[in-house]
Amino acid sequence: MCGICGFVSRQDIRLAQLKEMNDTMYHRGPNDSGEEIYGLKDGYSVGLAQRRLSIQDLSALGHQPMHSDNGRISVVFNGEIYNFHELREKLSAYSFCSTCDTEIIIAAYLKWGISCVDFFNGMFAIALFDREKGELYLMRDRIGKKPVYYMENGTELVFASELKPIMSFPGFEKKIKKEVISRYLYQQYINAPETIFENVYKLEPGAILKISVNSKSLALTKETWKYWDIKDVYAKQRQHMVTDYAQAKGELKELLKKATASRMIADVPLGSFLSGGYDSSLITAIAQEHSSEPVKTFSIGFQEERYNEAKYAKEVADYLGTNHTELYIDEKQMFDLVESIPKYYDEPFADSSQIPSMLVSALAREHVTVALSGDGGDEFFCGYNIYENVAQAQMLDAAGAAVHGICGLPFINKTGLSEKLPFRVRVIAENRNKETKTQFGASNYIVRAGAMVKNDGSEFPCHYEIESKYGESKWQIRRMLLDMDTYLPGDILCKVDRASMKYSLEARCPILDRDVMEYSYRIPHEYKFYKGEKKHILKDIAYDYIPKNLLDRPKVGFGVPLDKWLRGPLKEQLLSYSEKDYLEKQGIFDSAYVSNMIREYIKTGDGGPATGANYSKLSWSFFIFEQWYQYYFN
Q1: What domain count does the chain have?
Q2: How confident is the model over 122-167, as pLDDT tens digits?
Q3: 110, 94 in Cβ contact below 8 A?
Q4: Spatial separation of the C-alpha atoms in residues 262 and 255, rounded to whole Å
Q5: What are the φ/ψ torsions at residue 100 (nearest 5 degrees)?
Q6: For residues 45 and 14, what is the distance between their CA atoms, to the nearest angstrom?
Q7: Which residues contact 402 (CB under 8 A, 6 or more apart)?
Q8: DSSP 3-state assignment of 464?
Q9: Residues of the domain holding 607
Q10: Which residues does residue 502 pair with via DSSP β-bridges, in sequence order?
Q11: CA dist 546 to 189, 191, 278, 508, Å?
């Protein structure tokens, strides 16, 4: 696990400047660093740099940039290639100098060209320079576990694992992309390929970017394509459905075991996050099965009982016989991390579970350098509560069409069901033909998010649609696929990457193994959502290891008291951020609208419980944006 950065430019960039960019990511790789600059052609040069967190081959032989034995290829790499032992056997003709997986990338490229990425099973962000062809390639893993940002203006390209190195590049203009802000306020993250800055993008999951020089125009040429796309992979795998439940369960279990075992290969101490839920408990149980000694497990507990899952994690740890460490945290420990958010999440990111994620990462790092996690189980095996709402909404829509010839919300209102249904079901039904993030909440919440931004017009940039993109008639499946495309890489995996790398900890996700993901598409949906039970097949596998009574309970998740903070210790700071004079000078938000909204929100909480709408989530998104703005612009 590392941080990488570099450039293709005609500027006279010195090695010291590249090192300064690289060192902004010291937390991603404190063990080693390397920076090199090479000539390209037509006055261009290529810079490659890496901060190293040593995991495989701790010797100097793992130093990057790493070069091929013939000097043709140079590479910097962030992540892990879990099948590198298998690939090494296929590439035995190459003269390997190290035992690390970075060298596999070079050997594979020399044998298969850029299609080598199809052979890699892992999480990765790779920058590879081919001197012979005069081309630089950027590659990102299939599901977007590892980040790749890049700035491109026609004559320069700068890339990095985070935005900080790009912001440090000579001449970079920090120009905010206002059109993404309303969507951020609502979703709490900025989805690929967009970022908070003009001319800066995220390489999408499963994508490759090729950069070369056009000698006639002296401009850079850029070509981007997907080598792995959820829509296409899903359609392909559905042609090979596994229609026997016992077979599906057995084959999925073996794939999970293989994925977990491959992620336990490391030359440093390894452990597992354990919340006591199905996904982390299953991965921990499989890891314990493959370990010759008790696996180190980590969980955090909360003093407030309704948020506390630590007691359940302890029961699972005791049953499995792991070497368990837990830490009970109070509200102050969470609150103290708020100030560090913009430094490590270097564009606005307001999923508040980032705070407890940082705390459990800090705890684990005291004992290990690698931690297994259960991320991906909800998206690939139907675990979120919203998926139940989606299914209910489609049933209502179908009922309305059959009985009255009316679909969606008109049917619900006409039959008097509107006030009796969960609010989310009503919202989803209203947007019945759209995969849309309005399914997360209220339409008036979206309107407010859009209205906050200056000169936003009548559009809803936070209400984007993917009309029948996946060729699926079931709304529930479409929503799961949409989350795999957007919410999982844009929010969940971003959160885990930044939270773990803040403490130089590598997080590995067996459920997001290539073979597990692709096999999940071959499993009939009724094996995942069985008679209203979410994650049925994954739970069934977990019960092979852990008694049902230890796992079967409502999902809790990490809780942060946002409303209490925003109306309490953060109140004055929030009010300061929403002053009309400040907002008018900033020129991003509708100053009158935002100032009135924040004051209305604060006022409703004075002297007791809030009356009316609680816009703590929207106010938190605004607060985090302004905190980020203060950190990077003042």
Answers
A1: 3
A2: 999 999 999 999 999 999 999 999 999 999 998 999 999 999 999 9
A3: yes
A4: 11
A5: -95, 160
A6: 11
A7: none
A8: coil
A9: 561-633
A10: none
A11: 35, 37, 10, 22
Rounded to a whole number of angstroms, the distance between the first and last alpha carbons of the chain is 31
Region of poorest pLDDT, from 20-34, 96-110, 245-259, 399-413: 399-413
Query: Considering only CA atoms, which of 399, 271, 394, 279 is closest in space to residue 325?
Result: 271
Residue type, 123: M
- H helices within 168-210, ranges in order? 181-187
Pair 75, 116: CB distance under 8 Å? no
Helical ranges in 47-193 per DSSP H: 84-90, 102-112, 163-167, 181-187
How far is 551 from 355, CA to CA, in rounded Å?
25
Count of beta carbons in the 10 Å neighbourhood of residue 308: 17
| CA distance linking residue 571 with residue 577, whole number of Å | 10
Type of residue at 621: S
Beta-strand (E) ranges in 362-446? 370-372
Does the global pTM surpass 0.85? yes
Same domain, 258 and 371: yes
- Determine how many CB atoms are found less than 10 A away from the CB of residue 585: 9
Known catalytic residues are 2
For residue 61, name the pLDDT band (cuts at 50, 70, 90). confident
Backbone φ/ψ region at 118: left (φ over 0), alpha (ψ -120 to 50), beta: alpha
Q: Are residues 197 and 168 in the same domain?
A: yes
Q: Which of 228, 260, 290 is the last residue of a domain?
A: 228
Residues 44 and 183 in one domain: yes
Q: What is the CATH number of the domain that holds 252?
A: 3.40.50.620
Distance CA 122, CA 100 (A): 14
Report how far residue 446's alpha carbon sits from residue 466's, in angstroms, rounded to the nearest whole number. 17
Rg (CA), the chain: 25
Question: Which residues make up each annotated binding site for L-glutamine?
Answer: 101
Query: What would the pLDDT profile of 328-364 be if each residue is shown by its tens digit?
Result: 988 889 899 999 999 999 999 999 999 999 999 999 9
Please enumerate in sequence order all residues whose Cβ is within 8 A of that of 28, keeping only pairs 6 or more positions apart, or say none: 1, 2, 3, 51, 53, 78, 161, 162, 501, 504
Residue 508 confidence (pLDDT) above 90: yes
Measured distance CA(218)–CA(627) in Å, rounded: 40
Q: Which two tokens stand for residue 42?
A: 């037509």
Cβ–Cβ under 8 Å, residues 505 and 364: yes
Residue 35, strand partner residues = 49
Other beta carbons within 10 Å of 74: 22
Q: Are residues 32 and 91 in the same domain?
A: yes
Contact 65, 75 (CB under 8 A): yes
Q: Which positions make up the binding site for ATP?
A: 300, 373-374
Residues annotated in a binding site? 101, 300, 373-374
